[in-house]
Amino acid sequence: MTQPALTPDIAIIGGGPAGLAAAEAALAAGRSVTVFDAKPSLARKFLMAGKSGLNLSNDLPPDQFCGAFPPEMQSYLKHFTGEDVRRWAEGLGEEMFIGSSRRLYPVAMKASPLLRRWLGRLGAAELRTRWRWTGWDGDVLTFDSPDGPQTAQPKATVLAMGGGSWPRLGSDGEWMKTLAKAGIALSPLRPANMGFNVDWSDHMADRFAGAPVKTIAMTFGNTRVEGEFTITRNGVEGGVIYTLSAPIRDALEQGETTAYIDLTPGRGRKSLAQRLSKPQCKLSASNFLRKTVRITGVKAALLRECAPDISGDPYELATAIKALPLTLKAPRPIEEAVSTTGGVAWAALTADLMLNACPGVFAAGEMLDWEAPTGGYLLTGCLATGFAAGRAAAKYSMGS
């Protein structure tokens, strides 16, 4: 039997970073808040991200930082830059530091201490876990809960249910069906910051899956990125792959495509060719590469895998080392992506992130149609839009 409707000022649906930021903003405005989440605990994807070092933001100058986001997002980031993220986290008692590429991390290098302190700050909010939002019945929110169907009738609502990656952690994209039924304009969810399939030989997949390929550069189109990536059993992921993932994904819509790996970014082709012109004598091909140009291990395996018909000509070999073709077949499934693009179309929203078709309902975080570049931008974008939607929902609720 359905219980009487809950009546908070603000209902936040989704307990990840965007939803918790919205709750913080609404509480700061003096509104009562209930946070609903379908999982048994909050911010599961946030905690998973923190297991490998929590890249919260980026300490670039504000104009450069905002310029890394799509135009629709920039107005929200102007009011919440990397420096604002730093002050916010330090206000929660988390000491921060700036790492490589000006990325911003907590000294603890994990999310759990920050989340505990954040939830402590949000102590005035009511939390309802295992409550899965199922849509609207008129202006009433409906939920499935452990105790059966439930309802809530807030003065304003913030939707912050994430994208479609990592469904086991809560971001399953099921809300797309509900919003589509309500006539809200949506863009299809697609993977972002993801790996790609490569048709490795059995030897390459068995021997080198999990191996990092370090100190390389990768070129796709007109963009060259230095860094590293990781071989997987099915293909490649990590670092430079994520940085180039958007144009590679888009190109793959027309069929397989090719990126080029520079295995020795600090050495020119001419210098390589000169060294490779030395007599090989009795050295094996692998030992010759190791002794002359320091190509060993996974790099040597990649050279054999991606240029199997290369001749012994030193200039041809040097060219392969400097521009090794890597054929990419398809993006990895959306469930494996770091994040997603697509979701609520910007045309469906007001400047305050309210749905035009649903007055009093706001959206934030990965539910919005934007793509976060790698490097600390995803969490900052989710926080920024969460705070903006929470403030706007609070204001709306006071006038309703």
Topology:
Blueprint: E1 10-13, H1 17-28, E2 33-37, H2 44-49, E3 57-58, H3 62-67, H4 71-77, H5 82-91, E4 96-98, E5 103-106, H6 112-121, E6 126-129, E7 132-137, E8 140-145, E9 148-152, E10 156-159, H7 175-181, E11 186-192, E12 196-197, H8 202-208, E13 212-220, E14 223-231, E15 235-237, H9 239-243, H10 245-252, E16 257-262, H11 269-276, H12 285-293, H13 297-306, H14 314-322, E17 324-328, E18 330-331, E19 339-344, E20 361-363, H15 377-399
Parallel strand pairs: 1-2, 1-10, 2-6, 10-20
Antiparallel strand pairs: 3-5, 4-5, 7-8, 8-9, 11-19, 12-15, 12-18, 13-14, 13-16, 14-15, 16-17
Short description:
This protein is an alpha+beta fold and 400 residues long. Helices cover 34% and strands 24% of the residues.
